[in-house]
């Protein structure tokens, strides 16, 4: 099965005959990119794997509800983002801490994560990012690490491009201040 464009992939995903094959194509197209998108939010490799699996289950079960109002890419990223934030909030609630406290704990544990290959400066950058409000964290990670265009980010986060640009600019200033002062 050869998929030539998003429209054809969607048609096959909504077809009983080709759904399984088309989903394997979708997995191949998005698995690595979504892994890193989720990893930037939840930080831990093991948690990322869990959230990624939940994301693909949700995509598989809900592909028929995709209306085509946005790009498939944006819809998939929105699901991954929401799954990541839900994961963090549920874990924080279960541990009876704030999501910020949970993120700081996870960042402090990054050095013991065998899948984290960062150096001290990367840990410091992650700590700086963790000081940002949730929306600024998302915008910064999507722009800085994933180089997602503001237009696409606007669809994913359902926010105007202008607001996203402002959030990114403010986030960069806060991160620069944190890195200078710590």
Would you write up a description of this structure?
The protein has two domains: 86 residues, RNA polymerase sigma factor, region 2, helix turn helix motif (Rna Polymerase Sigma Factor, Chain: A); 65 residues, Arc Repressor Mutant, subunit A. The longest helix has 24 residues. The termini are far apart. 75% of the residues lie in helices and 0% in strands. The chain is an all-alpha fold and 182 residues long. The model has no long low-confidence stretch (mean pLDDT 87). The radius of gyration is 17 Å and the shape is globular. Belongs to the sigma-70 factor family. ECF subfamily. GO terms for molecular function: DNA binding; sigma factor activity.
What features would you highlight for this structure?
Rna Polymerase Sigma Factor, Chain: A; 9 helices; mainly alpha; 182 residues; Arc Repressor Mutant, subunit A; 0% strand
Describe how the helices and strands are arranged:
Blueprint: H1 6-13, H2 19-42, H3 45-62, H4 72-95, H5 99-108, H6 120-130, H7 134-145, H8 150-157, H9 161-181
Helix pairs in contact: 1-2, 2-3, 2-4, 3-4, 4-5, 4-8, 5-6, 6-9, 7-9
Tally of separate domains = 2
**Spatial separation of the terminal alpha carbons:** 54 Å
> In the CATH hierarchy, what is the class of the largest domain?
Mainly Alpha
Low-confidence stretches: none
The count of DSSP E runs of length 2 or more, i.e. the number of strands, is: 0
